[in-house]
Amino acid sequence: MKKLILLIPIFLSIMFFSASSLAEVAVIVNANNPINKLSKTEVKRLFLGKLKRFPGGAKAQPLDLRVGTKERSTFYSKVVRKSDAQLKSYWSTMIFSGRGVPPKEFNDVAEAVEWVAKNKNAIAYIPAGAATSKVKAVFTIN
Amino acid sequence: MSKSKKTIGLCLVMFFSCVGSSFAGDTKVSGFLRAGGALNLGDDLYLERIDKNGNTGDTHFGVNIASDITDNMSVAGQLWASGAEGGAFEMVLDWAYASWNIGSGLNLNGGKIKYPNLLVSDTIDIGISYPWIRPPQELYTFDAEGGPNMSLESFVGGSAVYTGFAGDLEYSVNAYLGESYLEGGNGTLSKMMGAAFDLGTDAFKLKLGYNMHMPEGVAGDLGPSEINSNNVSTLSFGAKINMAGALIMSEYAASSAADVAESDIKALYATLGYSIGSMMPHFTYASRDAEESNTSMTFGLKYQINPGATLKFDFTQVSPVAEEGMEAEEAFSVISAAMDVVF
């Protein structure tokens, strides 16, 4: 019985680790950003340029991964719910009426994580396991 | 167009390209191109340029530059060249304005600003954003006879735009004032003021617009237009539903010039489309009730080549409506094709 009680914390740790790694994509901000959590709607509006600022009022700088990456497809299909063609059409209406430009694009995840680690206003989506101690997840997609 | 004007245009494009590559972090250069042509199967002239010999005036090119100056101020502008004026492709400043975000969703804009009142008036040159080759001309065209204008390209002045959210709904109020210069130096629409109200989600959008201005120096068929120095007002209402592959769009607008008999114009259209993979067949009925009235029906097909390019075919039948006591002119058909690319 004593052994069984000792195993419970180990079992709970494994359960917690498994749940975290199940998250495919995490939306991250700089570790010093006061925001700790964002809703799906807030994330969507930030990446579509409809919200230009974080809930606290600081200017947000969203970052995209390049077209064709798995994380980008997961993010835009599950959070923004737009296909590549719909997204292109949406940003065309924004750009060519002067209402906004799409997020800055990065070729790989490491570059995006590094940028977020160095810029307090940046926000990006990355594979859940790629976060470092200089960034923090504010939304996850399973 | 003179050779020097072409050179200026080319230099501007090259300049913008250089700026874009030099300060790629804060400045973004984008562009769009349409290669288009149309053939009128009748003997009339459609839109003052499309006849039975064919016309490539739908072809145009634009380059856009946008830059963040600070966290709360940005500047954007667009140069545009069209083949509609006899293939001149003279590059002009389509619009350019500075936007200052003063917080809480409120932006103050100043410069040459795209007209905001109709569903596609601020993206009228961006073909991939709508189904047709040309938005219904009954509503989206200037009145060639010097009558009231229901749709405008842009105005020079200022605007205040407030954007807010209520649950899943997004809404915005855009109040503006300034003046608009008509193409070809055909007069000025001064003392312009108006507002546009938008409400919607990803699936639907409602738009209400009101514009008031005073035309000056506008030429009609036989000398100065009667609408000069009269208050012209336009009220418009539009709705768009885009869900489960179906597209429904409809707009109605009514214009009139005070103290000018027979200046009233009423126009409407309704479009239905349905996406089947990369294809979207669509149908539009449009009507214009004015001094010269007509109805039209357009059958079209939009094919998405890739996310940034579309190929379109439209077949439009235009039926002039007889004036009282007169015989109606013969109906005619126009076939159009275009490829739109954004980059």
Account of the 3D structure:
- The complex is a heterodimer of chains A (142) and B (343).
- Chain A is of the alpha/beta class and 142 residues long.
- Chain A has helices spanning 2-22, 40-47, 70-80, 84-95, 109-118; strands at 25-30, 61-65, 104-106, 122-127, 135-141.
- Chain A has a single domain (24-141), classed as 3-Layer(aba) Sandwich (D-Maltodextrin-Binding Protein, domain 2), CATH 3.40.190.
- Helix content of chain A is 44%, strand content 19%.
- Chain A has a five-stranded mixed β-sheet with strand order 3-2-4-1-5, sandwiched between helices.
- Chain B is mostly beta strands and 343 residues long.
- In chain B, 6% of the residues lie in helices and 56% in strands.
- In chain B, the strands form two sheets. Chain B has a 16-stranded antiparallel beta barrel. A two-stranded antiparallel ribbon of chain B has the order 10-11.
- In chain B, strand 15 and strand 16 (294-306) form a beta hairpin.
- At the A-B interface, helix 4 of A face strand 1, strand 2, strand 3 and strand 4 of B.
Keywords for this structure?
heterodimer, A: 142 residues, alpha/beta, D-Maltodextrin-Binding Protein, domain 2, five-stranded mixed β-sheet, 5 helices, 19% strand, globular, B: 343 residues, mainly beta, 16-stranded antiparallel barrel, two-stranded antiparallel sheet, 1 helix, 18 strands, disordered N terminus
Strands, helices and their partners?
The complex is a heterodimer of chains A (142) and B (343).
Chain A: H1 2-22, E1 25-30, H2 40-47, E2 61-65, H3 70-80, H4 84-95, E3 104-106, H5 109-118, E4 122-127, E5 135-141
Parallel strand pairs in A: 2-3, 2-4
Antiparallel strand pairs in A: 1-4, 1-5
Chain B: H1 3-22, E1 27-40, E2 60-70, E3 73-82, E4 91-101, E5 106-114, E6 154-166, E7 169-181, E8 188-200, E9 204-216, E10 219-220, E11 223-224, E12 232-243, E13 246-257, E14 265-274, E15 279-289, E16 294-306, E17 309-320, E18 332-342
Antiparallel strand pairs in B: 1-2, 1-18, 2-3, 3-4, 4-5, 5-6, 6-7, 7-8, 8-9, 9-12, 10-11, 12-13, 13-14, 14-15, 15-16, 16-17, 17-18
